């Protein structure tokens, strides 16, 4: 035979089993190199048809679509189209689909088949389908796709002979020039993928049906978001309703300890440092441990059950609307714990502009360090009233603050993607994990870790910053009759800043809390508590909770303005430092700082003036 060996390429979604099939078909006869000009691996090997004719088999990186959103996907498209340097155009394609995720995998499979090249579908992972009680009809699938479908189990080498025979057959029909359709409607393709998947199912077990039924409801484009929002609503109601008795108890304990210290130790600077700095300051943050635990209980359970990935799937449409891909969801979700791991998680986003946008908006996701700030102000100023059956006003306001951050982030992303980080939107389809009953042990460990992180922050950074602030508040000592805060270094410094934030309704003490809060957001709470503790001349008042003091000193518009500030303002230096590291320079962190300050200033100012005008 004189003609050059045929080239066959393996394509499909990530994790379909392409590489497993490639290994099974080529054995040890593989060569791994790089495609010229890109860092994507080129994996090729030799396979043999039943006739004895050899062919070159090329394993391609997993793709969701031919509209590439990563270098990997670009290589896949270019190889298939015959545009990739150092690679002959394939004579035939094998599309590998995971039988257990047909609905998702058929989206890209349709796109591949639409090219019009000789194509065979490998319906892979049938062993797992059998295990889960799913029986498929390859003939039905063949009919709806219009190309041969072969059942395979790549890791058990099942179906390989049939697959190669079919590939040989379609290759003989001769290659066509592949043509990319000019217009692809993603929604349409998803709909037909769903119909095809449904038509291919002969039978499935109760459990699988239950899970699919759940997906039908939870992922429904109309019902799904409503359920997601309702769940979040319950979470934030619970953060207040469940935590209050625990938080009150903790607060009482801190008060008792403070009283005991006052009763048993002589008056003096050291005693003041303990009562005003450690107990009033750090204690005021620690009492929010129950809230943190409850919030993370829900987050962990949503992750463990498999619901979180569904939430990401739902959010994908919204994210695409503002110009982000679903790949940003996990980094943004982690930012609800803390923006630092969130920003680091953006490394998984391959498109540089997508990634930059995600980094820039990550601080707008409400990190858990802001929860104590929100909680203390809400508990003090928002009445614990119900506005409907089982609907507490406090939880509602808390939810609104989180939503304000998310909406702000989406608006900023929308603007950025049309200006500085302009670029195309990449399609993204998530692999959805199976539903599972969460394991108590895993959730318990997760909660323990979260609680530990929170208390460690209280014991280290919050403690040190609060003590430094206490020192700055306590010196120089006031003359008799003069207020200690007015006389102190910190008070003097804050007077300068107060001029700047006065137009947005902040008083001197609020201004003062903004500076140490740059170290950690919770410090806003401890610094307010310490400031008021230092300011009071009455020893008994030192042990008093922060809430009543705030109410005595602030108006409602001031409190709301303070909340609005914390939704948007950049308060934590570590976030800026991580942004610098991840973007390799100061330019983007400075952009981030600037836009966040401007947003915070405008939001706080607008809140203050609207609330004042409304007579609140
Ligand atoms: N049980 C079972 N596992 C399989 C089968 N085929 C592949 N796998 C496993 O599924 C996982 C993913 O397979 P890969 O071959 O790496 O998938 P891929 O399509 O090359 O994925 P990307 O390279 O990321 O696009 C691996 O752990 C395989 O061992 C199969 O038929 N049955
Ligand atoms: Mg692979």
TrEMBL record:
Residue ranges of domain FeoB-type G in the record: 5-173
Superkingdom of this protein's organism: Bacteria
GO CC term, one of those recorded: plasma membrane
Key words of the record: Membrane, Transmembrane, Transmembrane helix
Gene Ontology MF annotations: ferrous iron transmembrane transporter activity; GTP binding
Pfam families listed in its UniProt record: FeoB_C, FeoB_N, Gate
Protein name per the record: Ferrous iron transport protein B
Species this protein is from: Croceicoccus pelagius
């Amino acid at each position: 035979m004189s003609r050059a060996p045929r080239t066959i390429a393996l394509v499909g979604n990530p994790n379909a089993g392409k590489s497993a099939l490639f290994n099974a078909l080529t054995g040890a006869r593989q060569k791994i190199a790089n495609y010229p000009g890109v860092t994507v691996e080129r994996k090729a090997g030799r396979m043999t048809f039943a006739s004895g004719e050899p062919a070159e088999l090329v394993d391609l990186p997993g793709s969701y679509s031919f509209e590439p959103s990563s270098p990997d996907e670009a290589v896949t498209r270019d190889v298939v189209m015959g545009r990739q340097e150092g690679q002959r155009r394939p004579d035939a394609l094998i599309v590998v689909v995971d039988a257990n995720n047909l609905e998702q995998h058929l989206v890209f499979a349709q796109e591949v088949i639409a090219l019009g090249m000789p194509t065979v579908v490998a319906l892979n992972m049938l062993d797992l389908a059998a295990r889960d009680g799913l029986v498929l009809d390859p003939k039905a699938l063949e009919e709806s796709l219009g190309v041969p479908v072969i059942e395979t189990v790549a890791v058990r080498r099942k179906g390989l002979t049939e697959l190669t025979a079919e590939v040989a057959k379609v290759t003989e029909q001769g290659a066509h020039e592949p043509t990319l359709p000019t217009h692809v409607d993603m929604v349409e393709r998803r709909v037909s993928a769903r119909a095809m998947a449904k038509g291919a199912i002969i039978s499935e077990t109760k459990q699988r049906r239950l899970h699919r039924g759940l997906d039908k409801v939870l992922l429904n484009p109309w019902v799904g978001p409503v359920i997601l929002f309702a769940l979040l609503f319950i979470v934030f109601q619970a953060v207040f309703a469940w935590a209050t008795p625990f938080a009150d108890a903790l607060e009482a304990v801190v008060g008792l300890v403070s009283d005991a210290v006052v009763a048993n130790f002589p008056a003096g600077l050291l005693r003041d440092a303990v009562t005003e700095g450690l107990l009033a300051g750090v204690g005021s943050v620690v009492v929010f441990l129950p809230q943190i635990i409850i919030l993370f209980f829900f987050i962990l359970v949503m992750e463990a059950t498999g619901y979180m990935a569904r939430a990401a799937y739902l959010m994908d449409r919204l994210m695409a609307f503002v110009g982000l891909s679903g790949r940003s969801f996990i980094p943004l979700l982690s930012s609800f714990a803390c923006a630092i791991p969130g920003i680091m998680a953006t490394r998984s986003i391959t498109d540089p502009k997508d990634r930059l946008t995600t980094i820039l908006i990550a601080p707008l996701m409400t990190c858990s360090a802001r929860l104590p700030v929100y909680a203390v102000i809400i508990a003090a100023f928002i009445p614990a009233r119900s506005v409907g059956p089982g609907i507490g006003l406090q939880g509602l306001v808390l939810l609104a603050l989180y939503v304000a951050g998310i909406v702000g982030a989406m608006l900023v992303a929308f603007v950025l993607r049309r200006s500085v980080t302009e670029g195309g939107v990449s399609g993204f389809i998530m692999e959805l994990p199976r539903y599972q009953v969460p394991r108590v042990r895993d959730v318990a460990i997760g909660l323990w870790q979260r609680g530990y992180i929170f208390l460690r922050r209280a014991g280290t950074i919050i403690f040190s910053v609060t003590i430094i602030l206490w020192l700055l508040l306590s010196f120089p000592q006031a003359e008799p009759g003069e207020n200690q805060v007015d006389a102190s270094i910190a008070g003097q410094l804050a007077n300068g800043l107060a001029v700047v934030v006065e137009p947005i309704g902040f008083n001197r003490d609020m201004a003062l809390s903004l500076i140490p809060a740059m170290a950690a957001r919770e410090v806003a709470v401890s610094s307010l508590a310490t400031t008021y503790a230092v300011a009071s001349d009455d020893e008994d008042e030192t042990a008093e909770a922060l809430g009543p003091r705030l109410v005595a000193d602030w108006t409602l518009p001031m409190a709301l303005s303070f909340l609005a500030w914390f939704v948007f303002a950049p308060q934590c230096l570590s976030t800026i430092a991580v942004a610098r590291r991840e973007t390799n320079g100061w330019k983007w962190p400075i952009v981030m700082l600037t836009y966040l300050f401007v947003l915070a200033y405008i939001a706080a100012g607008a809140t203050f003036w609207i609330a004042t005008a409304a007579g609140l």
